[in-house]
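Dear Dr. H.,

I hope your travels went smoothly. While you were away I took the liberty of generating a structure for the chain from your last submission, since the lab meeting agenda had it listed for discussion. I wanted you to have the full record in hand beforehand rather than looking at slides cold. The sequence, exactly as received, is reproduced here:
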Amino acid sequence: MKSIIRRYNRALENVVDARIAFDRLNTAAPAHCVAGWESSIDAAELDRNSDPSAMDIMHSQFKSGLSLKEITAEIMREDSSERSLIPDNGDNTEWLLEGLHIEDEQ
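The corresponding predicted structure, in token form, is as follows:
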């Protein structure tokens, strides 16, 4: 029971961040993509009682094929090659790597 309550509380804590990310995605995506996503979600929700696997469309379909270590190395290589073009103190790389670390933990 404690585990369920803990998960519920964590979901409540993350709902604001999830809403912000969702709104950014909807703003950035072309309108025809958003309409397609919405119709797919509506169809899945109608079918989920008879076929729970219909909700599988909610899972990420993106597979990079690269490990976190490979992605990190590539980002650092790109960052070091672009330093001459855009001088910064490395904060952008650190921010991106922190995001990848958070996603990997989830």
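Two observations you may find useful: The chain has two domains: 1-62, 63-106. The two ends are 22 Å apart (CA to CA).

With kind regards,
E. W.
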